[in-house]
Amino acid sequence: MTNITAYHKIRARLTPTEKIGQLFMPAAFINDTEEAIKALENSIKKYNIGSLCFFHSRASAATNFEAKKKIVYNKDSFNILKKLIKRYQDCAQQPLLISIDAEWGLAMRVENTPKYPYAITLGAIQNNNDLLFAIGKQIANDCKIAGIHWNLAPVVDINNNPNNPVIGYRSFGENKELVTQKAIAFIKGTKSEQVLTCIKHFPGHGDTDIDSHLGLPVIKKTKKELLANELFPFKELIKTDVDSVMVGHLAVPALSKNKNIPATLSTDIIKDLLRKELGFNGVVISDALNMHSVSKTYPMKGELEWLAFNAGNDVLCFAENIEEGIATILKNASQNQIEESFERVWKLKEKVFLNKNEQKETSVHVNNKLNERIAKESITLYKGSEEKIESFKNEGFIGISIGKSSNNTFFKSISKEILFDTYSTTNKEILNSINDKKNILISLFPPNVKPLNNFGFLEEEISLLKKLTRTKNVVLYVFGNPYVLNIFAAENFKTVVLVCQDEEKFQENATKHFLGYVYATGKLPVTIN
After folding, report:
1. How far, rounded to the nearest angstrom, does the alpha carbon of residue 70 sit from its chain's CA centroid?
2. Backbone dihedral region for residue 293 (phi beyond 0: left; psi -120 to 50: alpha; all else: beta)
């Protein structure tokens, strides 16, 4: 279904209950049982659901915080996604807005789809926001091919806490102007393909050390401090007529009379600050209402949905209690409240369904070419100099790979021009084997992109790298989250090159850098302690 009735006609046709249904965005799972798919189809029909947010599966990180269920990968997920979207659209009375978190592409949720660099990698690029535009445009086109209208991106949180467990690599950096400029370029690229965007997580989730999926973070800053920094990207982006703002589950005592309430449930933060003070007139969407920072506090079915709506959220993302939520909102809300949110959501739909929305098939070649350009412009010489690497290379060296087999693209590509011995940390005799060696080239591949449990490194791996930096002449290439340096006593490193990603194009470009064919022009967008 792609036809849509204009707002001035539909407003009189739908009942208040049907209008409230348009504000609900339940989760849809790409890899799900037929029984669950039919149950969602019935909900769409029965409650006049307005939108869906797609996730990989019920075992994926978004819905399986502590159970540790194994995520089963399905190489056919993309085709299943397209078929499911058609099924759900076919049973909807009104066209559904289909959304997904595609911060670095559909690959964030869907196997075998193009993956683009993380925001922290894009943050390292200097003076080339055309690349950010190109990324936004390409991801938007990928979304359109799938049937997705709304990319819940970009993240505009300023990541100024190195221990942030949930934002970190998803942020463009710690500088407010840089974050704002990158986000504007990404959004312009997305809009060029008529795909909706969403800036998140208002009023700023960067300076937290608690994952809001699991608990409630508290930001202990004054309103003046927040306006000067965390709120800056939101203020500036609102001026550009951004489509939507997602409110995060974090308590900000300086902004709310109720000091311990999440922003998602705070009238002071949404209606007073975001709407009145900052002047945002578009759609406000809640962060996922199944997240434990809010869901565990409000176990009564329908209560959380009502509180989120009453606080000022127009779209209730990942609402799990649809029937009870609609009934509670209908019972408590004023007619004006319902009509105002419905109007904002419907006009967002008109942006999508009244526009011609042609799509081009994405080719892997386009994806690789774009990633190749980003790899070249984001590589960062964090410590040392290219002259020192040249000298190191000419003196002879051995290679040690930590976190991944020594049979990686980086080492293999170098070995085509320079013969050198390679080791991996699975070799327990490594220190004895290299005792007489002076120069060590290390490729560091963090097993995890998040900082939990030392990014997945074993204690013996951490000890090995620390010992090597004290006793050897080490050149280190980091293929992953640069915050990983915080666990390795970064002050001891003499030469460090940050690549930020481990995909093949990034390893190939790192090889060119080591061999002296390209220079590092990127700049680290965050501070390493």
Report:
1. 21
2. alpha
Among 405, 404, 399, smallest CA distance to 442 is for: 399
**Under 8 Å between Cβ of 315 and 19:** no
- Please tell me the distance from the alpha carbon of residue 414 to that of residue 417, in angstroms, as a whole number: 6
Q: Which contacts of 324-327 are long-range, i.e. CB under 8 A and separated by 24 or more positions?
A: 325/24, 325/301, 326/17, 326/20, 326/21, 326/24, 326/47, 327/302
Q: What would the pLDDT profile of 139-189 be if each residue is shown by its tens digit? A: 999 999 999 999 999 999 999 888 887 899 999 999 999 999 999 999 999
Task: Assess contact for 386 and 519: CB atoms under 8 A.
Answer: yes
Read off the pLDDT of residues 219-241 as tens digits, 9 standing for 90 and up.
Answer: 999 999 999 999 999 999 999 99
Q: Whole-angstrom Cα distance, residue 318 to residue 285? A: 10
212-242 burial by CB neighbour count: b if 16+ within 10 A, else e? bbeebbebebeeeebbebbbbbbebbbeeeb
CA distance 365 to 367: 5
CB 197 within 8 A of CB 191: yes
Q: What's the 3-state SS for 34-63?
A: HHHHHHHHHHHHHHCCCEEEEEEECCCCCC
Whether the full predicted model's pTM is greater than 0.90, yes or no, is yes
Picking from 188, 69, 68, the residue whose alpha carbon sits closest to that of residue 140 is: 188
The partner residues of 262 in beta bridges, in order of sequence, read: 251
Strands (E), 128-250: 150-151, 199-202, 244-247
Q: Is the peptide bond before 95 cis (omega within 30 degrees of 0)?
A: no
Alpha-carbon distances, residue 267 vs 64, 103, 256, 258, 308 (angstroms): 29, 28, 8, 10, 9
Ranges of beta strands (E only) in 32-137 are: 51-57, 97-100
